[in-house]
Amino acid sequence: MTQYIFVTGGVVSSLGKGIVTASLAAVLEARSLKVNILKMDPYINVDPGTMSPFQHGEVFVTADGAETDLDLGHYERFIRGARMSQKNNFTTGSVYDEVIRKERRGDYLGRTVQVIPHITDEIKRRIHAVGEGFELVIVEIGGTVGDIESQPFLEAARQLRLEIGVRNTLFIHLTLVPWLKTAGEIKTKPTQHSVRDLRSIGLQPDVLICRSAETLTEDVRRKIALFTSVEERAVISLPDAPSIYQVPVMLNEQSLDDIVIEKLGRDCASANLSEWRRVTDALEHPERTIEIAIVGKYLDLLDAYKSLSEAIIHAGIENRTQVDVRYVDAEEIERDGCGALQDVHAVLVPGGFGPRGFEGMIRAAEFARENDVPYLGICYGLHAAVVGFARQVVGLDNANTTEVNPNTRDPVIGLVSEWLDRTGRTEQRNGDEDLGGTMRLGEQRCLLDASSIASELYGQTYTMERHRHRYEVNNGYVPALVEHGMAVAGRSDGDRLVEMIEIPELQWFVACQFHPEFNSSPRDSHPLFRGFIAAANRHADAQRAQLAGVAHMAPPGVPLEQAVGD
Ligand code: GLN
């Protein structure tokens, strides 16, 4: 029978419930268990697809094209045995949507439709669906205990425990144990209250994970155990970690996996965490440091670039490099020029939507092209690179994407349905019509040109990557782009849309229409990011060598900066 572990949070949000969930899954997987993960979100939006990146952070796209909570990204980065799909994340809104649809269809035969049992039954049905084929499912319940919104989820979990038995379920509660500076003391009261809230709805936690700045003393753990009726050994102290990738090892060191396995009555091998130790070792002992710029437009909430910043860390692990990221606002470049990019070792322009900041992204791509600084463009970053190239190199001064200027004379990027109407060129549509105006979502095959940097990095001539965009490179302009030195490095299978471009005469200028960051993990970094960071390292070496060469030529006594100039 599939067993279920529920993870709830108390006291405050942002305690890292998603990281703890993913890390516990990683440790259990390292004990050879087949583990899946589910995130239940309490908000009414049917999915996060239309939510603002400023409010909700990144939308994580699964291989099957679901637009999900960014926690699913953590899950995929921590485990290998399960791929996230649209089943692995659902919201209150989607549950109500389904129940109301069934009610309209007459499925409930005229009965009064209520939270209990109809909503809770639908929640349980979805929880069981994730369990099929797995020994264990860890269910993360979004929000904080005490919120009105998450109550149906907690009630469904309570019912599920009754139905499948105490032995087959486990409740883990994550709380904050703050340090009060004025009192000079650790405070356990919020944890006591939060557990009391849980118990008032019939849930006694089996394990408490206490987040704090420093490790809790035994006395504090004993006190928490006494007041919450949780075994003392199951009161786990989880202090702030320098990296999220240390959490699996930290949880294992406190025997959380032993406790879980014992309480669920399982018998399995001890955890092999050697790969995680390798990851943390690489993070702690980088051999060098470089700095790259990310030129974006959602900088007020860096969670909007979560998978991206993690993918860079993963590539750093692989290259034994600490990669410092300078976030540069694309609108700042529009106002002040590319000064902020002057001394970075590489430039990355990530995905984005809408006109704001697009000109700044174009300039960042131009800066990289003109100065031969390694460039990685992702989705909107590819559009920026192509538009800039069309304007400056091909000479189409008014080139643009129709997302920014629907009336541009040269729509080098546009909706597939617009190509024929606007350019009058002879591109065949090959059944692409359904792409017009709708989002291209999820994993699709990309065929790589054998002579490209990309195919060398991937080590093969095709790849499967995830998409989330509407606009495409207009095939009508491809011959002109190619004639002027841009190469099409990847095309989609069948419909032959441009998936990747490169500029072969530069050292490393690569852009892709898909989002490689969704396919990167600390143990398996993504080939494109790995290649990008390696190129940035080479660029940094060349810069240093040049600097040293000039210094060598400088007359004695002349400061280096003066000799090099600015
Ligand atoms: N806004 C662009 C489009 O819809 C790019 C999207 C993205 O960067 N994910 O095509």
Concise synopsis of the structure shown:
This protein has 566 residues and is an alpha/beta fold.
List keywords for this structure.
single chain; 566 residues; 7-stranded parallel beta sheet; 20 helices; alpha/beta; binds glutamine
The major β-sheet equals: 9 strands, mixed
Radius of gyration: 26 Å
Q: Helix coverage percent of residues?
A: 25-40%
Bound molecules: glutamine
Q: Number of DSSP helices?
A: 20
Going across the major beta sheet, what is the strand order?
13-12-14-15-23-22-21-18-19
Beta-strand residue fraction:
15-25%
Number of strands: 23
Q: Which runs of at least 5 residues are low in confidence (pLDDT < 50)?
A: 424-437, 558-566
User: Helix- and strand-based class?
Assistant: alpha/beta
Which overall shape is indicated by the principal axes computed on the Cα atoms?
Answer: globular
Mean pLDDT score, rounded?
91
Explain what this protein looks like in three dimensions:
- It is a single chain.
- This protein has 20 helices and 23 strands.
- The chain has 566 residues and is an alpha/beta fold.
- Helix 5 packs across helix 6 (151-164) and helix 14 packs across helix 15.
- The model is unreliable at 424-437 and 558-566 (pLDDT under 50).
- Bound molecules: glutamine.
- Glutamine is lined by residues 351-353, 379-380, 403, 468-471.
Topology:
Blueprint: E1 3-9, H1 17-29, E2 35-41, H2 53-56, E3 60-61, E4 67-68, H3 71-78, E5 89-91, H4 92-105, H5 115-131, E6 136-141, H6 151-164, E7 169-176, E8 179-180, E9 185-186, H7 189-200, E10 207-212, H8 218-228, E11 235-239, H9 247-253, H10 256-263, H11 274-284, E12 288-296, H12 306-318, E13 321-329, H13 330-336, E14 346-349, H14 358-371, E15 375-378, H15 380-394, E16 399-401, E17 410-414, H16 416-423, E18 440-448, H17 453-458, E19 462-469, E20 472-473, H18 478-483, E21 487-492, E22 498-502, E23 509-512, H19 527-553, H20 560-564
Parallel strand pairs: 1-6, 1-7, 2-5, 2-6, 7-10, 10-11, 12-13, 12-14, 14-15, 15-23, 16-17
Antiparallel strand pairs: 3-4, 8-9, 17-20, 18-19, 18-21, 21-22, 22-23
The structure holds glutamine.
